[in-house]
Write a structure and sequence with these properties.
Layout lengths: L1 H6 L1 H30 L6 H34 L10 H27 L7 H7 L2 H15 L3
Helix pairs in contact: 2-3, 2-4, 2-5, 3-4, 4-6
């Protein structure tokens, strides 16, 4: 299995990066939709349109991209020679990826609340939430590229 992973290492890495980009796009766009949705009257045409957009973004793009990110990331981690003894940067990176997954799940719960016209948060809350994935992503990229420890 290790030889196969080594042979396809660059393809796995490319697919991992593509998956991360798609996932991040959703993590950055969904809260923006929530900002608009928080200001739309429940039951309005705008609200109903946003419900469809949010559902499709989460189910068709974000969920598959998150799963692919974990699968390809796991394949990279399992590739012989990628993670060396004494390298601890990836522990922090993995922890931050789990934080992104938790944020993803929270967004799923907020989408469900909007779908049921039960949202209690205002647009300002979602504007702040919109910045969190960016900060986490910056830390992940620095850890993966610089490998500071």
């Amino acid at each position: 299995m290790g030889d196969l992973l080594v042979s396809f290492h660059l393809w796995i890495k490319a697919l991992h990066i593509i998956s991360v980009i798609a996932w991040m796009a959703g993590l950055l766009y969904l809260p923006r939709l929530f900002v608009y949705h928080a200001d739309a009257p429940a039951g309005s045409e705008r609200s109903e349109m946003l419900k469809v957009m949010e559902r499709r973004l989460l189910r068709a793009i974000m969920n598959p991209a998150m799963i692919a990110t974990f699968l390809f990331g796991g394949a990279l981690a399992a590739t012989p020679g990628v993670l060396t003894a004494g390298s601890y940067w990836w522990h922090a990176k993995f922890t931050l990826v789990v934080v992104l997954a938790v944020i993803h799940m929270m967004m799923g719960a907020w989408r469900k609340a909007f779908e049921q016209d039960r949202n209690t948060r205002d647009a300002k809350f979602f504007r702040i939430v919109n910045e969190v994935p960016t900060v986490v992503m910056i830390a992940i990229v620095v850890l993966a590229v610089v490998r500071p420890f």
